[in-house]
C-alpha cells in the first residue's frame, strides 16, 4: 500500500516529467553545433559572470560596474559556473535546458490547480510550451529572460499559495520573488504591478486588510530593486544607465507587438491593421475574462487569473516603456514573457465550458478543439524544424556562429592581441565582438544623437578603430562622418573588416 501511495505522485506527473525532458532535449539539440547563442547583451552578462568568478567583482569586460542591466542574472551565471566548474559559456546549454524543464514541470503543477483543467488539457498546454518557437529562440541564447520567465512562473505559484492561505508570510514570499525578478530584469516591476492588481481586485479581503497586504507586498517587492538602484546611483550617478527618449509612437509599438503575437499564432499576413487588430482583440478578451472571474467570485483562489493579470500588466508596461524610452524594437525576446500567460488565459476556460455542453454538442465541440490543438502543435513543429535547419550547420546567429569563428578580423585579434599601442584608445563599431573574439577592450563608437560624446570622440589625439563589416548599427556615428572629421589610415584590410588608425583633424597628433 505504501509503495503504491509513493508511486502515485510519480505516475500522476510522469507526463510532465516526459514533456520537460522533451523541452530540455530540444534546447540541447538546437545548440549542439556551435553552443549557446551570444548577442551583445550576452557578452555583458558573460563578462560580469567571469569577473565575479575570477575576481569577485561585478564589472564587465571594460572593467566598469554593471548598471545598464540588473545584477542578478550575471550572478546566477557565476554561481552556475562555480557549481559546474565550467565556464558559463560552456555550461549555458545545460543551464538553459534545465531552466526550460523547470518551467514545463512547474506549469504542470499550476495547471493541476486550475478549477476546470483536465489531464489532456495539461498535456496539450505543456507540449505547446515545449515546442514553442518563441521560447526556443530565448532559451537558445544567453539572455536574462531565461531566468526571468521562470521567476514569473514561480511568482504565480507562490501567489496561488497565498490565495489559499491569505497569510502575511506567504505574501512576503511573493514579494521576495517579485523583488528577485526586478534585479533580473528591470521589467520585473510588472510582477509588482501584477501582485497589487490581484490584491486590489480581491473581493474576499476587507479594505483595511487589503491595504495592509498591499503595503507588505509592495515593501518586500521593491526591496532588492531599491538596493540595486541605490548602488547604481552611488557608483555612476545614474539609476539605470543612460536612457534615450522614445522615437516610436504608441501605434507603432502596438503594431510590432501584434506582429510578434501573430508569429506565435498561425496567422498569415503582416498588414498593420490586421496585426494591431488581433493584438487589441486578444488584450481586451483577456481583460474581460479577468473581470468576469472577479465579478462572479471565481478568482479568489484562481491561478488562471494570476496569468491573466500578468499578461495585462506586462503588455501595458512593455508597450508603454518602449513608447517613452528608446531601446531595441519590440520583438520576440522582449515579448516572450507574454507567451505562457497568453496561452493559459485564452484556453484555461475551455475544459469547463465543454463540460457544460449537452451531450449532443459535446463531442463535435471537443473534436473541433482537438483538431485546432493538433494544427497549432503542427504549426509549431514546422517552425521549430525550420529554425533547426537554419542553425544545424552554421550555429545560432550571433557571435558563436561559424561566420564569426571563421572571421579574418576576429582571427587577427585572437592572435595579435598586443598589436595595439597602450598610448591610444581603441574603438569599434562592435566593441562586444572585439572582446568576445579577441579579448580586446574597445570603446563603442558614440551614438549619433549624443553630441557631447561625438565632440569628446573627435577631441582625442588619435585612436584605433576596429571595423567589422558584418555588423551594422544605425544608431552609431557613421564611418562617413569619421572620414569628414579625421585622417583615416588603414592598417589592415581583411575580407570582413579593417583596422584603422584615426587622427582627428584638429588633434595635437597632426602637429607632431
Automatic annotation (TrEMBL):
GO biological process: lipopolysaccharide biosynthetic process
One of the record's GO cellular component terms: plasma membrane
Positions of transmembrane segments: 12-30, 90-111, 123-141, 147-163, 170-201, 274-292, 307-327, 360-377
One GO MF term: pentosyltransferase activity
InterPro entries noted in UniProt: LipidA_mod_glycosyltrf_83
Keyword entries, A-Z: Cell membrane, Glycosyltransferase, Membrane, Transferase, Transmembrane, Transmembrane helix
Places the protein is found: Cell membrane
Primary residence: membrane
Membrane topology: Multi-pass membrane protein
Keyword NAD: no
Protein name: Dolichyl-phosphate-mannose-protein mannosyltransferase
Organism: Pedobacter westerhofensis
Upper lineage: Bacteria, Pseudomonadati, Bacteroidota, Sphingobacteriia, Sphingobacteriales
